[in-house]
């Protein structure tokens, strides 16, 4: 009986397991086989090498040279990616925290309304949100018109402006951070805050000594949830700037796909990014699991 | 939270108490405002509203200008349906590329939801009850597919369909396979969470009363899991409408390019014109309809449960 029951569960899980094995695990082996593979010199197409004993390291060496070599062009892109991502996620936190804090603590009966407005960007396509800003930032758009009223000449926002790209990233990913922060702050027991106040702490000190330490975990997971996609983002940059002077690692990888001769390097870069992000990803999974079981 | 004055409040600093001159009263009320520990945080509220305006006003403007009777994105020239269907060449309805994009988005959403939701629900049930290293490993793989950056996943899909499974050409089939793999974690995670809250009493009771595993599933588990299954279907459907990276990397021609990719590829590097705003507004309307239906449906399925509207909102936006 026990055995028959077990077979029932195995049969239920099997299609999903097979699907993930064939379309999630095998594809990553394919990327590895291409990263370690050869280049067909004639048509400049990558040739996947499936046998690990025949792997060649030519693409890895090429990528290493691109990043650290004397004529390095990928090095600056990497640095720019880290810089943009750091600034953008810090801005997300600085803007997002007060908003999430207000809705979690003080919205009262209007909490539903505020939540709908905070969640609304989730339901709006990312491309539509970028399109909206392109309209506003274009040469004759409302932003430049408003600048004109205070006597500032129009700014070329969309022609490779770093500030535009960083603000685009903030605008794109801040809703995710806010929802994580809100969920974390909403869970804080009000009794703890009242205890702090009863013991004579003012508003600011209650915040520093009670709320802030309790929101360390949501801040960390929230930052991860913005940093992970930013590091694989090429579309924000491409839509709002399109210039090489602002390109990030995502643009590099995406540009190498479908470019003859460079696909192997795209595979290497993508796997490297995955390796670097594996630890934060696993941390995120563990942290959210702990949160869920608490 | 009661509005009593806290006992530990520091004694008021010695204010010289001569006869109050005009103006001091005002200062005193102002000081009283600052010293009231339960005052409403007007600054925070203002900040939150500013954030919300910054977050949503651009969208409202973009939708408004999709109804503009002219090419401008900043000068209102009167209301028209021109960019939706009136214009015989450039409207979404008459431009073959834009028209095809709307259909492709709907097709991908329906196909992905129909495949991913049953697959994920069955996976969640099986993995939750079958003990051993294999289910544990694949549960981890499933969660990994949930957190991995979409570009890295998309690259692996691109390579597997161009080298190993090259009989699956880039196009609708590749898009559906990629989207299902990317979205199967929604039902799997949401259903597992619901399984934890349900507990095992109901199915054990059913089994004790003589139901076989299939009957337990059909008569007990599926009805109990209905809200979770429904919420995950809403999440997958709206997720596919808004998906960009996977479909961008796996589409091959105008016939299989959905709306998000059309907006991206037409817009960057130049003004795509108001028809794109119309396309984006159609996407927005589709998502909105799904959300409203999802919210209403979820409320209906969870009648009598605690949580109400906020819980339903959280469930259909993946915060459960």
Describe the fold and architecture:
The complex is a heterodimer of chains A (294) and B (320). Chain A has 13 helices and two strands, in the order αββαααααααααααα. By secondary structure, chain A is mainly alpha-helical. Chain A has a domain at 74-256: MetI-like (MetI-like fold, Orthogonal Bundle). With 320 residues, chain B is mainly α. In chain B, α8 crosses α10, α12 (259-267) packs antiparallel against α13 (274-301) and α13 packs across α14 (308-316). Chain B has a domain at 96-316: MetI-like fold. Classes of the chains: A mainly alpha (294), B mainly alpha (320). Chains A and B meet through α1, α3, α4, α5 and α7 of A and α2, α4, α5, α6 and α7 of B.
Kindly provide the name of the CATH class of the domain at 96-316 in chain B: Mainly Alpha
Number of DSSP helical runs of chain B: 14
In terms of quaternary structure, the protein is heterodimer
Overall radius of gyration of chain B: 27 Å
Second-tier CATH architecture of the domain at 74-256 in chain A: Orthogonal Bundle
What value does the average pLDDT of chain B take?
Answer: 84
Shape of chain A: globular
Question: Measured on Cα atoms, how large is the radius of gyration of chain A?
Answer: 24 Å
Structural class of chain B: mainly alpha
């Amino acid at each position: 009986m026990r055995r028959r029951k077990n077979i029932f569960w195995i049969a239920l899980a099997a299609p999903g397991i097979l699907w993930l094995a064939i379309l999630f695990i095998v594809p990553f082996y394919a990327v590895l086989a291409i990263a370690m593979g050869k280049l067909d010199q004639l048509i400049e197409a990558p040739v996947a090498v499936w046998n690990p004993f025949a792997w060649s390291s030519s693409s890895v060496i090429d990528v290493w040279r691109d990043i650290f070599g004397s004529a390095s062009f990928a090095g600056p892109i990497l640095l720019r990616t880290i810089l943009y991502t750091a600034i953008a996620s810090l801005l997300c936190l600085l803007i997002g925290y007060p908003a999430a804090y207000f809705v979690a603590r003080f919205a009262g009966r209007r909490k539903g309304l505020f939540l709908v407005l905070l969640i609304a960007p989730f339901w709006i396509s990312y491309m539509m949100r970028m399109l909206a800003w392109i309209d506003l930032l274009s040469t004759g758009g409302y932003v430049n018109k408003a600048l004109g009223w205070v006597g500032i000449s129009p700014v070329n926002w969309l022609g490779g402006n770093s500030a535009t790209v960083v603000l685009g990233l903030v605008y794109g990913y801040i809703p995710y951070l806010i929802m994580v922060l809100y969920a974390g702050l909403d869970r804080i027991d009000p009794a703890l805050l009242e205890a702090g106040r009863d013991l004579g702490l003012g508003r600011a000190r209650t915040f520093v000594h009670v709320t802030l330490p309790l929101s360390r975990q949501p801040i960390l997971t929230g930052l991860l949830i913005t940093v992970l996609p930013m590091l694989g983002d090429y579309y924000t940059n491409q839509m709002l700037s399109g210039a090489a002077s602002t390109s990030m690692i995502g643009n590099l990888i995406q540009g190498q796909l479908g470019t003859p001769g460079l696909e192997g390097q795209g595979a290497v870069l993508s796997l490297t990014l995955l390796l670097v992000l594996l630890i934060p990803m696993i941390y995120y999974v563990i942290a959210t699991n702990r949160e869920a079981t608490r | 939270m009661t509005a009593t004055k806290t006992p530990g409040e520091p004694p008021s600093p010695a204010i010289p108490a001569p006869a109050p001159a005009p103006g001091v009263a005002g200062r005193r009320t102002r000081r009283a405002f600052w010293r009231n520990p339960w005052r409403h945080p007007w600054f925070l509220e203002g900040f939150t509203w500013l954030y919300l305006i910054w977050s949503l006003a651009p969208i409202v403007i973009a939708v408004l200008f999709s109804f503009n009777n002219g090419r401008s994105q900043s000068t209102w020239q009167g209301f028209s349906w021109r960019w939706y269907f009136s214009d015989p060449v450039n409207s979404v309805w008459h431009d073959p590329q834009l028209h095809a994009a709307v259909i492709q988005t709907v097709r991908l959403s329906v196909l992905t939801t129909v495949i991913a939701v049953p697959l994920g629900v069955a996976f969640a049930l099986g993995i939750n009850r079958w003990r051993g290293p294999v289910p544990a490993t694949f549960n981890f793989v499933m969660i990994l597919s949930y957190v991995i950056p979409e570009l890295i996943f998309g690259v692996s899909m691109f390579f597997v369909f161009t080298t190993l499974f090259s009989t699956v050409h880039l196009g609708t089939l590749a898009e559906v396979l990629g989207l299902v793999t990317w979205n199967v974690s929604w039902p799997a995670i949401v259903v597992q969470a619901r399984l934890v809250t349900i507990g095992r009493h109901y199915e054990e009771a059913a089994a004790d009363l003589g139901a076989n595993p299939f009957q337990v599933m059909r008569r007990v588990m599926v009805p109990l899991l209905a809200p979770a299954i429904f919420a995950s279907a809403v999440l997958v459907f709206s997720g596919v409408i808004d998906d960009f990276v996977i479909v961008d990397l796996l589409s091959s021609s105008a016939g299989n390019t959905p709306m998000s990719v059309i907006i991206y590829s037409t817009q960057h590097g130049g003004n795509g014109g108001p028809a794109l705003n119309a396309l984006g507004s159609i996407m927005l309307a589709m998502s909105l309809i799904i959300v409203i239906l999802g919210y209403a449906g979820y409320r209906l399925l969870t009648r009598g449960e605690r949580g109400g509207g906020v819980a339903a909102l959280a469930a259909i936006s993946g915060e459960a």
